[in-house]
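Input/output pair, single chain:
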Amino acid sequence: MIVLDGHKDCVNAVTFSPDGRWLASAGDDGSVWLWDLALEVGRVRIAWGAKYVFALAFSPDGETLAVGTESSVLLLREGEGQWRPHQQWKDHRSWVTAVAFDSSGQLLASGGVDGHVRVWDATHRRRKPLRQLSARMGPVRSLAFSPDSGVVAAGGVSGLGLWSATDAEPILFQRLRDADARGVAFARDGRSLLAATGRAILRIDAHSFNTEELLSGRPNFFRCLDQSPTHPLVLVGCDDGTVRTLDTALTESQDVKTWHHGTVNGVAFHPSGLMAASAGDDRVVCFWNLDLPLSDSDADFAALDTSEPPV
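Output:
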């Protein structure tokens, strides 16, 4: 495991670029850091006047980075080796705490403390959202598109909601026993939705909506999650500084790492499925190799040396 430092305050989110080269992090210091895992340029700090950055998402082609700040949704695009603001929307009028692209990169969903989910055209400079979804769950904590881009899932302080990506009417709204759903992710096949809801990790069937509890803990314990792109594994970040690896096939925790001092706010799998990253209140990003069997197609990723952090 290596520690990547640079943030001056709590780190709220981490995500990898689709090609696996960049690891992006965002924090309460109002900046985004890009860590070059190929070690060509080391690291890049992006700051444009935001006070806080709560959420991050790369577009599927890796050319756009969406960020949620205290006042807007902002799209950053790379040009001539620099990431610059490309589009900004201020319709939320408050903190934007979740962003997610669909699999085509044409749609971007954003959610905030105003309790609304907005779906944007991510490829054209339209001033207004394509749709506004009234989440009816208080502040929105997390968002995810299904693999086929047909469904948008949102987690909020009072439950979970599912919508058709082309319709403002909800498919499902489910209040939860411990409501603060800080993380949502669809399974790779799209048949189920995983949610970190404070005291439990839930798996919800996307068709029958039957709910299964995979892990349980005390209130407000589970804070974030991410689904592996290659294995039936889920990363779960917790408020005690641990990152847990959950095998969804066996429905049990396979590994527990204490990487942070304080709450873990974000976790992410590398596109290869062989590495992972996490971010926390201790102002650092942790990056490590997962102990998984390699296939022939994984050979290039296995050669990555993570013994020393980028500088």
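The radius of gyration is 18 Å. The longest helix spans residues 299-302.
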